[in-house]
């Protein structure tokens, strides 16, 4: 995502993730961590001459991203671009645009 954004010459970016673990890894991963190579690549992109803010959001705050992540599990590893959203993605995009909030369920 960072590479695509850079190549599109977008220089002000707000990146949202529902993974607080990922945020911590970007900040603190050491060379001994199993994902250190990926984290190093992310850090390299973040050091470029642009403004990137990274925020933690709950999964329910970005249903579109959650849908894309879940549907991506069925795809081969690599870059995949969505040219036209399927009906489910279109539904969530519409709800995102009009500001529909999805309630957060917490098991007790």
TrEMBL record:
GO MF entries: nucleic acid binding; RNA-DNA hybrid ribonuclease activity
Protein name: RNase H type-1 domain-containing protein
Domain named RNase H type-1: residues: 1-71
CDD domains, per database record: RNase_H_like (cd06222)
Organism annotation: Linum tenue
Superkingdom, natural source: Eukaryota
């Amino acid at each position: 995502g960072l590479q695509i954004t850079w190549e599109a010459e977008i220089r002000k970016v707000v990146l949202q993730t529902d993974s607080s673990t990922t945020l911590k890894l970007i900040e603190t991963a050491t060379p001994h961590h199993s994902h250190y190579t990926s984290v190093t690549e992310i850090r390299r992109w973040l050091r470029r001459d642009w403004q990137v803010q990274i925020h933690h959001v709950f999964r329910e705050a970005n249903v579109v991203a959650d849908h894309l992540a879940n549907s991506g599990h069925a795809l081969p590893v690599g870059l995949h671009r969505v040219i036209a959203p399927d009906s489910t993605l279109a539904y969530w995009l519409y709800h995102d645009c009009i500001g529909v909030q999805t309630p957060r369920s917490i098991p007790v």
